[in-house]
Amino acid sequence: MTAPLRLIGIVMVMVGCGGIDDGDDGPLGGSLRVTGRVVDFIERVDVGGAASVSTSGLLPPPSIETQGATFTIDGVPENSAFHVLSQVAPTHRSTYSPAIEVLSGDVTGVEAPAVAETYLASLATAFGVVPTAGRGVLFARLAGELGPRAGIDAATLVVDGGAVIAGPFFLDVNLMPDPAATTTSASGWVVYFEVEPGVVGMTAVAGAQITLDMPVSPIGPGAVTVVDVDVVDGLPPRPTNVSFSQQVFPIFERRGCVACHSGNGPGRDLGNLTMNGSTNVVYRELVEEQPGRVVVADPPTSQVLTMPSREDPPDIHPNVTFTSPNDSDYVLIEVWIAEGALDN
Ligand code: HEC
User: Fold this and answer.
1) pTM for the full model?
2) Which has more pLDDT, 219 or 13?
3) Distance 308 CA to ligand 1 centre (A)
4) Which of 56, 176, 186 is nearest to 126 (CA)?
5) CB 178 within 8 A of CB 214
6) pLDDT tens across 139-164, in order?
7) Which of 304, 317, 319 to mutate to test the pocket of ligand 1 (most atoms within 8 A of CB)?
8) Is the Cβ atom of 287 under 6 angstroms away from ligand 1?
9) Which end of the chain is more exposed for a tag (fewer CB within 10 A), N or C?
10) Among 285, 283, 259, 284, which residue's Cα sits nearest to residue 272?
């Protein structure tokens, strides 16, 4: 990315942050546009009929226009990850899309999959599940750098968050149910029924020699959630001796925190957190100004990690930047806190 482009992006965000007194400009700091279509999960063609679309993970919700199967979402902040929830009744089940990650520019060509009622019913029958209305269904596609990953064992997969009652079940290469399978096919697809509403992630069981990275995603009662899970062989190296000034401080600029937390947002409570100062100022803001922002005794509960992450119930933060605790910047901040949140 060239420096001038980056500057323009930041200036736009700051204008958004500063001019929010009227409250009619859309979400705080949001200036980006995301466009796409709602497509059938299997056929990959536009759903017939009018889709209705909402978002999960942005606060306040951005403005959305739909026309047939296409949607335009306006007012998304930079460095945000969110999910589209599509509704195409009565042919399709309400479906949360995989996480849509927005960096510094507009995103076009998003395909939000919607799972057909007939297909879902055929899976439930094949897998011998009687779905209840209060629970959700999770479709996860396990893929590595070279594409979908075959041969990943049921015993390796752990769903964190909502309790799971039925699964994992596996889809074959044609996305048809394979009730006898105990590992992923070359399609990489795993299905869980009867997942408790809330948010879920997925990890590999302790001792497994692979890493699974799934964006923390919403589960809705009676809804389907479709996710992409990154599979990497081996365990990620965990950093040590993390430096605040060299490694943590630059994250706040790089991941767009400074654009909003710049103290230039009159009329709006930014949690009173200013991040556009020197290393020393930002250190004091985080560690000394207010308890809770950094919690050395229990690093993952630190607001500097929870606010830009996805929780259930959602917190008051306008956007999600760290899609999972495996995000490398999340890990750096977490280790820095665990090592005592030093001014180093
Ligand atoms: C789109 C604008 C925006 C972006 C980007 C953003 N924040 Fe925030 N943040 C807010 C707002 C608004 C609040 C205050 C929420 C409230 O209290 O109503 C807040 C609150 C917080 C708080 C709580 C402060 C307190 O003491 O109450 C922390 C910590 C925080 N943000 C960290 C971050 C980090 C770290 C990033 C980058 C990864 C980030 N934020 C990116 C807008 C933003």
Assistant:
1) 0.89
2) 219
3) 7
4) 176
5) no
6) 999 999 999 999 999 999 999 987 87
7) 317
8) no
9) N
10) 285
